[in-house]
Amino acid sequence: MKQLVNSTKAKKSEKERTAVLRMELDYELATLFDAMTSENDKLKTTTKQKLEKIRHELLKLKAL
């Protein structure tokens, strides 16, 4: 019974983390768009790095 409860909690936390990551992904994509339109190279670089980290985490969670 404990295994079932723990499994359910783990799945719920994974779903919550995936939802948060997707919101972060949307925000960073909007930031990248703003950086591209304003031709801000430094912001483009840092945003791309953040997007890469989000991508890797989503791949670990098998959400992509």
Strand content: under 5%
What is the residue-averaged pLDDT?
A: 91
Distance between the termini: 31 Å
Q: Give the number of helices.
A: 2
What is the β-strand count? 0
Number of domains: 1
Estimate the global geometry from the Cα principal axes.
rod-shaped
Q: Largest sheet, described in full?
A: none
Q: Which structural class do the helices and strands define?
A: mainly alpha
Question: What is the string of SSEs from the N terminus onward?
Answer: HH
Poorly predicted sequence stretches spanning 5 or more consecutive residues: none
Helicity level: over 70%
Rg (C-alpha, Å): 16 Å
Topology at a glance:
Elements: H1 2-37, H2 41-60
Helix pairs in contact: 1-2
Describe the structure.
- The chain is an all-alpha fold and 64 residues long.
- The protein has one domain.
- The chain has two helices and no strands.
- Helix 1 runs antiparallel to helix 2.
- The longest helix is centred in the first third of the chain and has 36 residues.
Can you describe this structure in just a few lines?
By secondary structure, the protein is mostly helical.
